[in-house]
Design brief:
- The chain is of the alpha+beta class.
- The chain contains 15 helices and 13 strands.
- The chain has a five-stranded mixed β-sheet with strand order 5-6-1-7-8. Strands 9, 10, 11, 12 and 13 form a five-stranded antiparallel β-sheet that branches.
- It is globular, with a radius of gyration of 23 Å.
- The protein binds a DNA duplex (11 and 14 nucleotides) through α1, β2, β3, α3 and α9.
DNA sequence: TCGCCCTCCTC
DNA sequence: CCATGTGAGGGCGA
């Protein structure tokens, strides 16, 4: 039985949410921006609507450059409001979840889903379900999305990518090979610029060429995990299942400093809100952590870290602050350039064994 | 296993 | 001074 795996992607999500909440801006270029605060327009474009994209603006572009490109075209510049998009996203994902067998959220604007058992492996039924999901989101939220359907996650993801914006692409299992064959390897999920350029050195440009490559050769170059993934996914055969409800493994906060500095105390003092925010996150999710890491991004944008692991999970609010301070002092001594950005990461997350759950464990509710 | 680094993902 | 913020995962030396 072939799996029926879907991938849904909400189109230019943040900017589209803004368009829905103020339809008067729809005809204009819209960019949703992350302002870093170090100068008037420092920061990057997070999302651009298609009007802005036509004028050469894309995600990750510095705001000042985007503004130059949009000069004279009456642009709408909106600071990012993550909470707002989260609320819309949660409503939509709940709606999708109600219409599929399993859903695996992979970001605020995208998710994998599985329709194998509800369709019995019938792709024409899968197509109908995907269409009704799209219609439901349009009806309830006035938002467009793109969906890909295929026999594996890799195929579904490629499908939703090619369907953008607003489309649906169904790749039948028997069409998988011809669908993948001529696509560039860089289109594969997990293949970024570095891996693509390594593959190019081996003379591998397309997914079809990757499928014909010598697995031994790939393993020596990319390691066991990545090569295994590359071989399987090049044939559209990755067997990674759609997994519901996965737990987070780390939380982090990164800020851009007002001014570059190598002074640990100065860096740490600007991190006060980040520390508080991490503590809030820990308590609201009822988690503990074992490892805390200080992260520094230097003026040359290189990243450096120092970390400390505790023997047992901790969640004491003060522990984050005290250890972060020490780690930053350590980090600042080990680097040879100023910090541009600094951050704190906590990982090795575990659920709190609090009094309530402990008593439930000792004396299960009847 | 830890500490650190690298690569990648999305907007 | 153009270059954000969050999270996942793997490799590798010690």
């Amino acid at each position: 039985l072939d799996r029926v795996v879907g991938h849904i992607d909400l189109d230019y999500f943040y900017a589209q949410v803004e368009e829905v909440q103020d339809s008067s801006i729809k005809s204009r270029p819209v960019i949703v921006c992350v302002f870093s605060g170090r100068s008037e327009d420092s920061g990057v474009v997070s999302t651009a609507n298609y009007k802005a994209r036509e004028l050469g603006v894309h995600s990750g572009m510095p705001i000042s450059i985007a503004k130059k490109k949009l000069l004279g075209s009456d642009p709408v510049v909106i600071p990012m409001d993550h909470k707002k998009y989260e609320i819309v996203s949660e409503r939509i994902m709940q709606d999708v979840a109600d219409n599929v067998d399993i859903i695996e959220s992979t970001g605020i604007d995208e998710a994998f889903f599985d329709l194998t058992s509800s369709t019995g492996g019938d792709y024409s039924q899968g197509r109908k379900l995907a269409e009704s999901i799209k219609q439901s989101i349009m009806r309830k939220e006035n938002l467009t999305c793109s969906i890909g359907l295929g026999r594996s996650k890799v195929v579904a993801k490629l499908g939703s990518d090619m369907a953008k914006p607003g489309g649906l692409i169904v790749v039948l299992p028997e069409s998988t090979e011809s669908f993948l064959r001529d696509l560039p390897v860089a289109k594969l999920y997990g293949v970024g610029p570095k891996t693509a350029s390594s593959l190019k050195e081996l003379g591998i440009d397309t997914i079809g060429e990757l499928a014909r490559a010598d697995p031994q050769n790939l393993e020596s170059k990319f390691g066991r995990k990545l090569s295994g993934y590359l071989v399987a996914s090049s044939k559209g055969e990755d067997d990674d299942p759609v997994k519901a409800g996965s737990e987070p493994t780390q939380f982090s906060r990164v800020i851009t400093l007002k001014k570059d500095t190598r002074d640990a105390r100065e860096a740490f003092s600007q991190l006060a809100d980040a520390v508080t925010s991490l503590q809030d996150k820990l308590s609201s999710t009822n988690k503990s952590f074992r490892t805390i890491t200080a992260v520094g991004i230097l003026t040359d944008l290189s990243a450096h870290t120092k970390s400390k692991t505790f023997e047992a999970p901790v969640n004491n609010a003060m522990i984050i602050g005290e250890n972060a301070r020490t780690l930053f002092e350590d980090l600042s001594r080990s680097v040879d350039k100023d910090f541009r950005r600094v951050g704190i990461r906590i990982s090795g997350l575990a659920d709190n064994i609090d009094q309530k759950s402990l008593s439930e464990f000792l004396q299960p509710a009847r």
